[in-house]
C-alpha cells in the first residue's frame, strides 16, 4: 500500500521500486499494396516483362543484315506476345532474337576482320611487287 496519496504503486517483484513498463502500442497496419497491373497472372502478379533484345537486333542489322532481320522480327514480337499473356512464347522469341543478333554480329565482325586482313595482304603484296619492279629497272 502506498504511504502517501502521491506515491505510485510498484510491482512486488520489481526490486528497484520502479513502476511496471507498459507494452508498446501496436504498429499501424501496412499500407495497401497496389493492385495487379494490366498483365496480371491468374494467381497473383505477372512476372517482370522480358527483355526483347532489340539492341542485339539493331547491332545485327548494322553489321550483317541477313542475320539481323530475323533478330529484329523476333524482338518486335516479344512485346505483343507479352501483352497477349503468352509469357513462354515471349521468352522464346526474346531468346531467338538474342541468338540471331549474336550470330549476325559474330559473322559480320568476322567478315569485316577478314576484309581488313585481305586489304593488308593486298597492300603488302602490292608494295613487294612495286619494290621488285623498281629494283629490276635500275
TrEMBL record:
Residues 1-39 are annotated as: Disordered. GO terms for cellular component: membrane. Residues 21-37 have a biased composition (Pro residues). The chain crosses the membrane at residues 54-82, 103-129. It is found in: Membrane. Keywords: Membrane, Transmembrane, Transmembrane helix. Its main location: membrane. Pfam families: CD225. The keyword Transmembrane applies. InterPro entries: CD225/Dispanin, CD225/Dispanin_fam. The keyword DNA damage does not apply. PANTHER family: DUF4190 DOMAIN-CONTAINING PROTEIN, NG5. This is Interferon-induced transmembrane protein. The lineage of its organism: Bacteria, Bacillati, Actinomycetota, Actinomycetes, Pseudonocardiales.
Amino acid at each position: 500500500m502506498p504511504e502517501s496519496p502521491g506515491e505510485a504503486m510498484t510491482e512486488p517483484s520489481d526490486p528497484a521500486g520502479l513502476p511496471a513498463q507498459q507494452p508498446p502500442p501496436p504498429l499501424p497496419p501496412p499500407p495497401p499494396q497496389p493492385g495487379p497491373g494490366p498483365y496480371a497472372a491468374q494467381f497473383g502478379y505477372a512476372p517482370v516483362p522480358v527483355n526483347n533484345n532489340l539492341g542485339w537486333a539493331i547491332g545485327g542489322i548494322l553489321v550483317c543484315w541477313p542475320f539481323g532481320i530475323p533478330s529484329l522480327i523476333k524482338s518486335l514480337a516479344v512485346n505483343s506476345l507479352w501483352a497477349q499473356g503468352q509469357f513462354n512464347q515471349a521468352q522464346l522469341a526474346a531468346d531467338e532474337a538474342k541468338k540471331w543478333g549474336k550470330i549476325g554480329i559474330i559473322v559480320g565482325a568476322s567478315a569485316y576482320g577478314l576484309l581488313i586482313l585481305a586489304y593488308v595482304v593486298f597492300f603488302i603484296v602490292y608494295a613487294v611487287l612495286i619494290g621488285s619492279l623498281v629494283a629490276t629497272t635500275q
